[in-house]
Amino acid sequence: MLRRYCISAILSLVCLVAGAQSAPLVARFDPANGVLPTPNNLLFAGSVDGTLNIPVADPSDPASATVQALNALDGFSTTGPMIATFSSALDPASLVAGVTVRLFEVELENPVLNPATDSPFAVTRVVQELNGEIDFTVNLLATDPAQSTIEILPLRPLKPKTGYMVALTDGILGQASAAPAFPDLTYIFARYERGPLINPDGSSRFANLSDSQAQALEPIRRLVVAQEHAAASAGLRKAHIVLSWSFMTESTDDALRAIRAGLTALPFTLAPTGLDTASVQGAGLADIYTGTLQLPYYLDAPTLIPTVVLTTRWRGANEAEITRYNPQPVAPQTLSIPVLASMPNAASGQSQPASGWPVVLFQHGITRNRTDLLALADSLAAAGLAAVAIDLPLHGITDSDNPFYNATMERTFNLDLINNETGAPGPDGLIDPSGTHFLNLASLLTARDNLRQGVADLLQLAASLEQAGFDTNQVGFVGHSFGAIVGIPLLAVDDGLIGPASLVMPGGGIAKLLESSASFGPQIQASLAATGLIPGTSAYESYFRAAQQVLDAGDAINYAQAAADKHPTHLVEIIGPPPDQTIPNSVPGAPLSGTEPLLQTMELNSAGTTQNDSNGLHIAVRFLSGAHSSLLDPGPDAEVTIEMQQQIVGFLASAGTLLPIDNTSIVFQP
After folding, report:
1. 255 is a domain residue
2. Strand 182-183 versus strand 241-248 pairing type
3. Mind listing the pLDDT tens digit for each residue in 12-33?
4. Where are the alpha helices (DSSP H) in 65-196?
5. Residue 54 to residues 8, 447, 631: CA-CA distances in angstroms?
6. Which of 24, 65, 163, 337 is most buried per CB count within 10 Å?
7. Number of Cβ within a 10 Å radius of residue 153
8. Does the pTM of the predicted model rise above 0.85?
9. Residue 501: which residues within 8 A CB-CB, separation 6 or more?
10. 253 part of a folded domain
11. One domain, residues 229 and 269
């Protein structure tokens, strides 16, 4: 009876305090009706393999595909927002990161690692508190016209496989009345710390809580009590908390590290074509070679069903999802893929060292192919650097008249699934353009694993270089656009295979990057509009949040710091005006999307003059003119192409200790 009185007294107090206003401000929390702050560990409930278990009403409904993709993940986004809803409009000035909105890194009881726990995902301690406006920011959610929803945005990627806890306080005020927020009545029950909500026989201990309600709320109560105890240990008084929740971030690099750990050389051969770069309008300083590389293909190739490329994804043994608990993907087949290489010839004035040519791995951008290497080959050859290029997954040469076309090995698989003129589904008798199906946003897991396959392919190439006679102690990397995006995870997990790297116009936060791209955005928005997702709506933004969560394990932003920590790094950005029209420098409302967030996460110094450092440089160069294609195409601005290529060559040839900047008039001076 005493406990019944205590909880009733608490509820009465809330009602009395709130009685002075017609509509008290309440932090919404009603798990029984699906009203939860997100991301939230309650969405693991019922999982048997450590993946999310978000309810899906009808798995056969195509509209549920996005949720089903989320349910293949072992946690929540490292880059996405945290969201909570209140009962009425909020005063935005009262939303202060680190003051009224607190974010903590915490340790959690992981039921997969500790099956004996009786409190799955309970917070056990605070590791550290994150800094407001340095690690995260908070604002009103733009798509909520009621102005009653808050959005907490990381300014740096959260750690993978890590627990986090959010606590909102009564310093959050209503917009109309300036009155403080209160906890939801359900949350008041959930924070009750004087004992269980149920008796040993399962009946409720409280008159205003039914047996079924108490039974459902009791496991949540244990989590909330643990959260508030942890918050109190960090100096936050429990009486000031109006809502708290916790979540665990997903794994990101586990699968790629598993692949790297088991990596061995596979057959890699090259043969001269009898052509040099003069045959492709170059200076003729490099001879052109073609060959093949064997590699494990962790996706399904379209041997019998062409459309399998639209839905395939990485799987473990027994078709298990790839997670931190099961990181090793199984390759359904080994493919032989085409390789293009360039090597300095006599016209370059260079002689091959006894140890073999120093070599640069080159990765082209989306919708391009391996022949993009040839636009850079002469500059590399003049410095005594050979180069090797392979295609990104689902990319390749589609013109059968191209002398480097390989009819049986192109990784476009000669697919004809769309009309090349209109983009409409259905064959037109022509091979689909290179990369058409690479970022398939209708199957987010496929898009993620096409990115990861690109990394795995480059790892295999790097591990097999010695078979073609290259000097494996002098290996550099150049990635352009999406080639640089794939290159950053490569550099984070390569463990010594590669040295210095030049990353030309990369970007992170892929989902909003694509949506905000002047090149890709209109097509993506039109495709989503055809499914009923309209820009500016809540459903539209929810899709992009989900897309980013799925793509996180293949997104450069989650690998950027590790990549820069391990490699001398040179990053190129076009800031204009106009700025890069393909990979945006930054994206309003998405602080981890674009090139600038990568640059910041990698902690690169901006430079406008020649730089030296015997320990290796970490430099970003911002160009004031040029275009996204300027690395390879002098058309938009020949001076920019010359300067970019000279920077790359000087940087790689010096093992990342020298960055020559000759034309200072076309680069930003910090």
Report:
1. no
2. unpaired
3. 444 444 444 467 999 999 999 9
4. 65-70, 185-190
5. 33, 21, 44
6. 163
7. 18
8. yes
9. 476, 477, 478, 479, 487, 491, 563, 567, 568, 569, 570, 656
10. no
11. no
